[in-house]
Write a structure and sequence with these properties.
This protein is an alpha/beta fold and 209 residues long. The chain contains six helices and eight strands, in the order αβαβαβββαααβββ. Strand 7 and strand 8 (198-207) form a beta hairpin.
Length: 209
């Protein structure tokens, strides 16, 4: 049984590097208007609203609080209509500091420019959907994202205990395991903000007397 527990922990530790995408740290989205060509902006607003974002106008940005501004993205897009070939659309999401959080370029070909843009947008929307967006406040993300922990003034073990105490996932917590050679392992396991992905950290490894 002990060996099974150790094996499970090793498997969990193997996925530490798989974390949530940075897009999860944002919940407001402003679309940089370009005159709504080919229904691009309408489709973007519907998609991101359904995804869970709150759409705001760029003119309303000054009215956002500092905390809200830090949770806001600006969607900018560039498109190229090629009537004898593949048209393209590039979507970039930046935060207010200008950092690129997501960018993708896709191509679409149909019988009309509007159809081209629809196909290109849908390809990009599929990529964003696969990121499994779920808003996670950055204060929490810094604690749980990618299996890394923000200690602040607490010990590593106390941080894990606090996370586990407020979690509905029974896997999170502190584990003690003893190997046949008398080695003791004390390991903390937490779930990242990308649900189903767990991170682990050795808290103590010692040899029993």
């Amino acid at each position: 049984m002990k060996r099974i527990i150790i094996l499970m922990i090793v498997l969990i530790l193997g996925v530490i590097g798989i974390g949530a995408h940075r897009i999860n740290g944002y919940r407001y989205l402003a679309i940089n208007s370009q005159g709504n060509p080919f229904d691009v902006e309408i489709r973007m607003e519907k998609f991101f609203t359904k995804l869970g974002f709150k759409i705001v106008r760029l003119d309303d940005f000054p009215e956002l609080s500092r905390e809200q501004g830090e949770e806001a993205l600006i969607a900018d897009y560039q498109y190229d209509i090629v009537y004898d070939g593949h048209s393209s659309l590039e979507l970039t999401l930046k935060n207010v500091a200008g950092d690129i959080i997501f960018t993708s370029k896709a191509y679409g070909i149909s019988f009309s420019a509007k159809g081209d843009m629809k196909r290109a947008l849908n390809k990009i929307f599929d990529q964003i959907t696969n990121l499994n967006y779920k808003f996670t406040p950055k204060s929490l993300a810094s604690t749980k994202d990618n299996g890394l922990l923000s200690l602040d003034n607490d010990s590593l073990e106390n941080v894990i205990k606090k996370i586990a105490a407020n979690s509905s996932n029974p896997i999170e917590g502190i584990y003690n395991s003893f190997n046949d050679d008398g080695t003791k392992y004390r390991i903390g396991i937490i779930e990242s903000s990308d649900k189903g992905t767990f991170g682990g950290m050795y808290l103590e490894t010692s040899k029993l007397p």
